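job 3f2a | input accepted
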Amino acid sequence: MRQSLFVALMLCLTPVLAGCLDSLTGDEELRTGCTYTEAENWDPQAQIDDGSCDLGLEGCTYEGAENYNPSFVVDDGSCVFADPVVGCMDPAASNYNSYAEYADDSCVYLLGCTYEDADNYDSSAQVDNGTCEFAEPVTGCMDDTATNYNQYAEYDDDSCEYLSGCTYDDADNYNSSATVDDGSCNFPDPVLGCTDDAAANYNPYATIDDDSCYYLYASLTSEEFNDFANLFTEQKDFTLWSDDFDRFGSEMKINPIPMVEEMDEGGEGGDNGTEDDEEEEMPEEMYIVLGMQKDDASQIFTATFGMEMSMEGDPMEMGAEDGEAKMSLRMTSVRQGPGCTSGDCTLTNEVMEVSMYVGSEGPGTKMIMSMYMFATTYSRDMVPYYGDPVAELPGGGSFFLGQSEPEEVEIIRDGDNVMFSPAEIEIEVDTTVIWYNDDDTTHTVTAEDGTFDSGDIDPYSEWEYTFGEVGEYAYYSDKTEDKDPFGNLTGRVIVTEIEPIDLDWDTEAGVGLDSDDDGKDDWIEYYAYAWDDEENMSIAATLTQNIETGTLYPRHLEFHNETGVPIMAFEFWYGDEVYIELNDDEGLNKSATQFNWDADSYDDNETSQNVYEGTISEGNGNYMQEAPNDEMEIRVLEAYEGSDDEDPGIGDPFGGDEEEEGGRENARVVASMILSDGGDDMVDTETGCHWYITWNDNDGDGLVSVNDTYEIRSDKMGTGGEVCNREGENGNATYVIEFFDLWADAYVDGPNPALAPGFTGLFAVFAIAGLAGLRRRRR
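job 3f2a | predicted structure (779 res):
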């Protein structure tokens, strides 16, 4: 039955098969095309498929493209975009974007062991992450300059291979791939370079010596760097090194941002706004700069105060994805001593240098803005002073060194018991202890061995003592009621040595320097780096050594915290590296005398007057500019915008604020007097208030100088019955006292902070905190 059906089927198909065979064996040419019936270009007449079938699966598969189609499976590179694409541009990355025109650091790599002989070899890994494991020690090439360098090799098998060629990049036949120079370099012109084969930078191709040779010396030991670090932290200033030179310069930078962030994290930052506001206002890097230079032979010196700030991101707020902003400010005062060599020792200069840069860049956008301003003015100091600029000015180290945070002890009462709190403290040598009497009764702080005795410390007053010797000091209050049998007010101070710095320094060979170009090295520079585990900071140090004397001097010191953020840095210059220029008055603008004064105001109810008093302060001591009384005017101004700022002014570097409406320059002058007049009274015609001004030249030198005073009074009732209040309804001052320099035709500002000996305040707090790790201060 089955055979019959098969035969019948064959008979039915025979005509068809015969026709097909006839067409295959005939002379007619075969038709090619797409034979897949589901394809968009299916050709029913095609006899042979030629691979041209369009299945409709290819197209733009990138979702951000304008012609994106989710039905496509295979991207054919046809995507079209309205804006340039940002993404990973490294073809080796797992998220490589072939359409990206700008890299965004988003590349992702498959990490793993890429060494085929390792036990944990990962064939899919794109980047080796150093995790390869081996059953046996690996042998191979251990020279990282070789083409077959093996980072896992523990034993060198002399298998290193090098690509030979010309490695001198100025040669005609320079080969950037070559790792070993084979002496084949060709040069069209004579080659300049070091021709001494004993030098570290010997150039075998050099045909003409260009005096560029330098020589290496044995590195300093880690112990020698530790010895210098301990010596550095023991100093009160930089005179140990500056005294060896007529000319010397130093500059210190400190970054307060890490401390501010730490205070904020600890809840000590105060409530100055929202977190977002603070983040927007806080620069990523900010440095306070203090510096000085001196020339003893000419008795001229400089004092510099500055700030440097930088931010990254979108400073122009233009939607850019990459940008930065930088600002640098330097204010330098140039002063002379009485033994100057310029011919006019009263001449002074003020130099202002400001630079700004803002750049933003993103897809299709780029903007750059920069500004630089340099201005020099001249003024006078009628009593020139030189002193010791290094020891007395903050830039000479007195701001940073010799600083130690005082320890505090309180005298407190708890019922009938009076006690020192804490009763026992442990400090390091040269630390100051402050005792504050928080009781309403007088007490003393008296050492049992007679080393110190405070005398009576009145209620809510304090007394301090600096411990300069190591030892234990028991003390008590020498008041009858504080001793047995009535009381037991006693305490103890334990003074220990400062724990020495003992770090493991990575040192480098010294580099010789020929500073006088006599063909012989006279200085050696040494560099070393250390990590301090205890303080979580790194220290990079460059020291310079005088070959003749063997003395080491600091050249550059830099400190970074555990995240790599700079904390502070020191820079030093010696001898001919220092050049100070004083400009005369030709072509320069005048600048007003600079000084500070302490001011107070109150109501005198007995005389029904408002009283304003002030004293020229010792804030900048001997470095204060003293100007003639007949060139200085004291003025009563109506309160202006910013006049209630308690911080001393150092002027506006751009000269803008005071010129604006509401600023000091446009404030109305209510009353005024030239200081040489000594006293005067006047009536303000606008308000009817009567003013009385007195100037006291207490030292009788005819100059505005420290401890000179003024007193200004005004009647509370004006001549026509007007009310003349010292303060407004909101409690703000109605009037402000200012000094005006008639010689310069400008208002007086506070002096350059870099001229204030023992410069303290907020910046000193940063300095103390920055050096705490160096000094190993234990608490």
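job 3f2a | The helical segments are 2-25, 222-234, 239-242, 257-265, 275-281, 389-392, 762-775.
job 3f2a | closed
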